[in-house]
Write a structure and sequence with these properties.
Blueprint lengths: L2 H8 L26 H19 L4 E2 L2 E2 L1 E4 L4 E4 L2 E3 L4 H22 L2 H6 L1 H18 L13 H27 L1 H9 L6 H21 L2 H6 L6 H4 L6 E4 L1 H4 L23 H4 L20 H13 L6 E4 L1 H4 L9 H22 L4 E7 L6 E2 L5 E11 L5 E7 L6 E3 L4 E4 L4 E10 L8 E9 L5 E9 L14
Antiparallel strand pairs: 1-2, 3-4, 4-5, 6-7, 8-10, 9-10, 10-14, 11-13, 11-15, 12-14, 15-16
Helix pairs in contact: 3-15, 5-6, 6-7, 6-8
């Protein structure tokens, strides 16, 4: 076999990636815009989401920001409730519930998130591409411009940079709060160089994403599209081309008789020209499809022009296209729904029964116990108390039902500000006689002024070989 034959065999039948040319170079996409019914609905949703994203950091619930993910101080506020580092179980349940919720939505609605609500899609299609179309004069045309004047490219870059600055500042407001962000913005960068570098890096990443990487984020970087094969089934909602109705495709020739079995697809390629990821929807379900419905809008417009029914490309399911019944209620959907409902109930119970204080008891490092000259056995317990309330609280430390034991502490009554953490050692003294095989179980109680009690068990250690019964009645 000669070299020419080998090269011929190695040539792919089509593009390996929709954004990759046959020679391996980047295929830049400049999709046309089809302003159909789905696009109009998506635009309303997109601008509503942008408004929510912008305003949410400024909204307060019960005197707290609606959302504040304070990573530095490890305090995460979500819709009026603050999670502390000790809320690992709560955060785990919340994240698992969110993940299963995404699975459930995907099983029913397919990639509705990608096409309607994903920030990448929302900002790319309703902020950055409109800027390009406006400045480059490509509105309603699409396709790669043959020659872009330098001044137009510069204006696109400047406007896109301003948009990225807006997004970066808004994004960081979720992590530092609007008050702190306002201080950073109004002061010189030299007064807070670390914060300025964070802002610059976030802005740079957004410029890279929306001006260079663009649809590659959805095609290559995002794992969600790769999960379609396990999250979707035959009854999941997808955007698809109806091959039964469209094939065999062909051009319309008014001077020729209508072919008896010719389908409705006239092979105009409009569905390909408007696709933001560059795929051909007629090739079937593909991981690159983000269900943005641009192909459906474009095809509907063509069907209107040639006098044929809409819906050649539409929301449907693989079952419906195969002539089967689409079942909304099916095992995987029921299982997801039951699991999400169970986790929501469990999370609600955890939140409703959550203590106003987090109390942790730790054993002092070093010697496990000391025997004082008086014969009493001393254990040192490190008591940690975190105030979970939004007001300053006083906490009283005491032992439960232990008249023979005594507790020595620098502060028996601890006053803590909201979110403040107390950590101090306390000394518990017990007679040797109470120890059975070197151990004795006690309970430390932390009480709030409103009468809420938090009990924590602790196992005291003492000398071996002194049975508890031997010293009954001894001090």
């Amino acid at each position: 076999m000669n070299m020419a034959s080998q090269q011929t065999l190695l040539q792919p039948e089509g593009r390996v990636l929709s954004t990759l040319e046959s020679d391996g170079s980047r295929r830049w996409l400049y999709p046309r815009l089809s302003t159909g019914r789905y696009w109009q609905a998506r635009r309303i949703v997109a601008y509503a989401l942008i408004a929510i994203f912008t305003l949410l950091p400024y909204i307060s619930i019960n005197g707290k920001p609606a959302v504040l993910l304070d990573v530095l101080h490890r305090r995460f506020t979500l819709f009026g409730y603050t999670f502390l580092p000790t809320d690992t179980a709560l955060l785990a349940v919340f994240m698992l519930m969110t993940l299963l919720g995404i699975f459930a939505i995907t099983a029913v609605l397919g990639r509705a998130w990608c096409g309607w609500a994903c920030p990448q899609t929302v900002y790319m299609e309703y902020l950055f591409r409109p800027i390009e179309r406006l400045v480059l004069g490509r509105a309603g045309v699409g396709g790669k411009p043959k020659d872009i004047p330098g001044w137009r490219a510069f204006i696109v870059f400047v406007l896109s940079l301003l948009a990225c600055l807006y997004l970066a500042h808004t994004f960081l407001a979720y992590f530092v709060g609007v008050a702190q962000l306002r201080i950073w913005v109004t002061q010189s960068p030299f007064e807070h160089p670390a914060a300025f570098m964070v802002m610059a890096v976030v802005t740079g990443l957004m410029v890279f994403d929306f001006l260079y990487f663009r649809e590659q984020t959805c095609i290559i970087a995002c794992p969600y599209g790769r999960l379609q094969s396990v999250l979707l089934d035959k009854s999941s909602l997808i955007v698809s081309y109806d091959t039964n109705r469209g094939e065999p495709r062909g051009k319309i020739h008014k001077s020729l008789p209508v072919v008896e079995k010719q389908g409705d697809c006239i092979d105009c390629d409009m569905c390909v020209q408007v696709c933001p990821t560059g795929i051909d929807i007629r090739a079937g379900l593909q991981v690159e499809c983000i269900s943005c419905t641009q192909c459906a809008d474009a095809c509907d417009a063509v069907m209107d022009k040639i006098g044929r029914p809409r819906g050649l490309v539409r929301y449907t399911s693989q079952a419906a296209l195969a002539g089967e019944r689409t079942r909304i209620i099916r095992p995987r959907v029921v299982i997801y729904a039951v699991m999400v409902l169970g986790l929501m109930t469990f999370l609600g119970i955890l939140l409703a029964t959550k203590s106003p204080a987090d109390v942790t008891l730790l054993r002092q490092t070093g010697s496990p116990f000391l025997v004082r000259p008086t014969g009493q056995v001393e254990n040192i317990i490190v008591v940690k108390i975190a105030n979970r309330m939004d007001q300053t609280q006083e906490y009283t430390i005491a032992l439960v039902d232990q008249p023979k034991l005594s507790l020595e502490a620098t502060d028996r009554v601890v006053r803590l500000a909201p979110g403040q953490l107390f950590q101090e050692p306390v000394h518990v003294l017990a007679p040797r006689a109470v120890f059975d095989d070197g151990e004795y179980a006690i309970t430390v109680r932390v009480t709030t002024p409103d009468g809420h009690k938090v009990d924590r068990p602790f196992r005291m250690l003492g000398p071996l070989g002194v049975p508890a019964a031997a010293g009954k009645g001894q001090p």
